[in-house]
Design brief:
With about 290 residues, the chain is α/β, with parallel strands linked by helices. Helices cover about 40% and strands about 10% of the residues. Helix 7 links the parallel strand 6 and strand 7. The protein is globular and about 50 Å long. The structure holds zinc ion.
């Protein structure tokens, strides 16, 4: 297992820029990352759109930064009236990820149509939403494959099944990968986030099933007790109950050698100074991950 305490250059640490999204725009975040010696980042689409794709590409290049992923595409369930719009939005996400030099585009599949894509006709047909996800993902993969952009499917905690992701377990995500890309040759893999999967009785056996080829990106944070908000109540690594090292060992046993992406979406950490947040991340990365 990699010794993160000895990672003086932070070569295996990545900052998901959503972690400090309330403290400033993308350029300020990239500057702060550079100040702290963090050279891997994973930006969000809205942050890139705010400054424009070209400017974001230049900032990544000029800063000598590497991406560990781009957040995010997907949100497939919608109604017939919006289907083309959703398809085209996802194609733009692929194009942006290519321009930014991302190793993968993270896919959050969406839940019920009116939550996944506000403005869509309301429906509580969860099975129907899952069928749309399978179809939408297959269609998107055909486009992404041509563009050479791997798609990293991220299962989300079942508390988010209605709003954000009707794919709730790693098993479900891997079953989709097997169905859509049985030959494992088209660039469909997994974004594994400890926050969403730590509770799963099958997690270790399912991680073993992922394989090095499909293990595209790995997200770190912690699960606080109590958790006041599943959306914005994530904990800093070491402040909660997730056995991060155990999960990291399982992922490394696959042969994963990518960066560990810290994604702490939290009202608490959004209210702190950006330099304080990054200092704590680095300290926890070296001591508890
Ligand atoms: Zn994540």
């Amino acid at each position: 297992m990699r010794d993160l305490a000895a990672d003086e250059t932070l070569q295996f640490l990545s900052l998901n820029t959503g972690t400090v999204r309330k403290q400033g725009g993308l350029l300020a975040i990239l500057d702060a990352a550079a100040r702290h010696g963090i050279s891997n980042v994973a930006p969000w689409r809205d942050q890139v759109h705010e400054i424009g794709l070209e400017r974001a590409v230049r900032a990544v290049h000029d800063g000598g930064l590497r991406l560990s992923g781009y957040c995010r595409g997907g949100l497939f369930p919608t109604d017939d009236a919006h289907r083309i719009e959703v398809r085209d939005d996802n194609r733009r996400a692929v194009d942006e990820a290519v321009a930014l030099g991302a190793p993968c585009l993270v896919i959050v599949v969406g839940g019920l149509p009116h939550f996944a894509r506000p403005g869509s006709a309301a429906s509580c047909d969860l099975a129907g939403a899952r069928a749309q996800v399978a179809d939408g993902l297959a269609e998107m993969l055909a486009y992404a494959e041509t563009a050479g952009m791997p798609l990293a499917l991220e299962p989300l905690h079942p508390m988010m099944a209605a709003e954000r992701s009707c794919v709730c377990t790693l098993r479900q995500a891997l079953d989709l990968c097997d169905a859509i890309d049985p030959s494992r040759s088209r660039g469909l893999g997994i974004a594994l986030d400890v926050y969403h999967v730590w509770w799963d009785t099958e997690i270790l056996s399912q991680i073993a099933r992922v394989g090095a080829d499909r293990m595209l990106t790995f997200h770190l944070c912690d699960w606080l007790v109590p958790t006041m908000s599943v959306l914005s109540g994530r904990g800093m690594m070491g402040d909660g109950v997730i056995e991060i090292r155990k999960l990291r060992a399982a992922v490394e046993a696959l042969g994963f050698n990518g960066a560990y992406e810290v994604e702490v979406l939290s009202d608490h950490w959004w209210s702190r100074q950006i330099d304080e947040v990054l200092s704590v991340i680095i300290e926890r990365y070296r001591t508890v991950c």
